[in-house]
Amino acid sequence: xxxxxxxxxxxxxxxxxxxxxxxxxxxxxxxxxxxxxxxxxxxxxxxxxxxxxxxxxxxxxxxxxxxxxxxxxxxxxxxxxxxxxxxxxxxxxxxxxxxxxxxxxxxxxxxxxxxx
Length: 116
Hints:
The chain is mainly β. Helix content is 0%, strand content 57%. The protein has no helices and 11 strands. It has strands at residues 2-7, 10-12, 18-26, 31-39, 46-52, 57-59, 67-72, 77-82, 91-99, 104-106, 110-114. Strands 2, 4, 5, 6, 9, 10 and 11 form a 7-stranded mixed β-sheet that branches. The chain has a 4-stranded antiparallel β-sheet with strand order 1-3-8-7, with no helix packed on it. It is globular. The termini are far apart. The mean pLDDT is 95.
């Protein structure tokens, strides 16, 4: 089992920045990749960014150049630095972990609202 605790969401004006954090605990030795997904009202959950244990990253086209995912393996924490935020980035952001066996774990979600 892997437990995830997210933090860092909130309300920000368009063009602003936020940093999300997700700390993992439990069977952390089994983690292969960590990442972030988001779900806006009335829409399906979508991938935002992922990072593997080796540091390989993947981003949704909509966030490339604005968001940066990073990982501190010593702290078992993944971060999502979000810059140049747009109203369409408004969503609940979920931390995700994939284990080496392919099992997914999810955080409780943190609200990000971009509005003036």
